Amino acid sequence: MENPRSILIVSSLMIVTLLFISVIVFDDKPYLMISMAIMVLTTIPLFARFELKQIQSKEIVFLAVLAAIAAISRVPFAPLPSVQPTSFVIIVSAIVLGPQAGFIIGASAAIVSNIFLGQGPWTPWQMFAWGMIGLVAGLLRNTAIMKNKYGLIGYGFIVGILFGWFMNLWFIMGFLGELTWPVFLSAYVASFYFDLAHGLSNVFFLFLFSVAWIRILQRFKEKYGILREY
User: Fold this and answer.
1) First to last CA, the chain
2) What gap in Å lies between CA 207 and CA 154, rounded to an integer?
3) For site-directed labelling of 137, which of 8, 77, 104, 153 has its Cα 20 to 30 A away?
4) What gap in Å lies between CA 31 and CA 53, rounded to an integer?
5) In this structure, are residues 202 and 80 in contact, taking their beta carbons and an 8 Å threshold?
6) Cα(229)–Cα(206) distance, rounded to whole angstroms?
């Protein structure tokens, strides 16, 4: 378990377990406790890197700044359901900085943005969903898909849809409670517009700004020697 990537995978599995416990066992009531537990698990890969690779303070600050940008950028778009640049920031950050950074930025962005938009039982689910968007983007960053702009845009569209599908699981288990095919179908049909809006907003931001953002983040990374082994 000396590999931080292995620690990241174990942390992710533990978070999934917490999510289902929060719904099935506790009926979503202690969502703040679950959210804090997920935050602790999210930072485990960061501390693992600190122990194994000696992460620098400027690297922690850089991650915090990107998480803050991802979180705050969501607030002005709150009147537009599911339209926000948060996923875009998480994806481009993960492409430059790697899966661990993407996971941390994604999970942190959810809980920080909900300070302004409202915490609730949905918060830990959003933390995991955005964290996984960053994690997978980081794992795929050296593939032909991510090196191609249209492949990157396609990834953004797909994860925008999958984000909504994942959040539907929380809604069904937390509010509807009845796990039947008609219930699943009605919930997913009802969320179609919101899921599509998230996917298309990712396409919009990635198409217009991904090249510039990746170039800027790469410049920061190389100039200051930040997170080179992430």
Assistant:
1) 16
2) 10
3) 77
4) 33
5) no
6) 25
For 181, other C-beta atoms within 10 Å of its C-beta total 7
CA distance 131 to 91: 10
163 sits in the region (left: phi over 0; alpha: psi -120 to 50; else beta) called alpha
Rounded to 5°, angle at Cα 193 from 187 and 195: 75
59: nearest Cα among 101, 99, 28:
101
Return d(Cα 177, Cα 172) in angstroms, integer. 6
**DSSP 8-state secondary structure symbol assigned to residue 3:** S
148: its two tokens: 């191609």
pLDDT at residue number 230: 47
pLDDT tens, residue order, the chain (230 aa):
445 566 666 766 777 776 666 666 555 455 556 656 666 666 666 556 555 566 677 888 888 899 999 999 998 988 888 899 999 999 999 999 988 888 889 988 988 898 888 877 788 788 888 988 998 999 899 999 898 999 999 999 999 999 999 888 777 776 666 667 788 888 888 889 999 999 999 999 999 999 999 999 999 888 877 766 54
Among candidate residues 117, 41, 136, 135, the one with its CA nearest the CA of residue 79: 117
* Residue from 52, 33, 82 nearest 230 by CA: 52
Which run of H or of E encompasses 156?
Answer: helix 149-171
192: Cβ contacts below 8 Å, ≥ 6 apart: none
Residues 6+ apart with CB under 8 A from 148: none
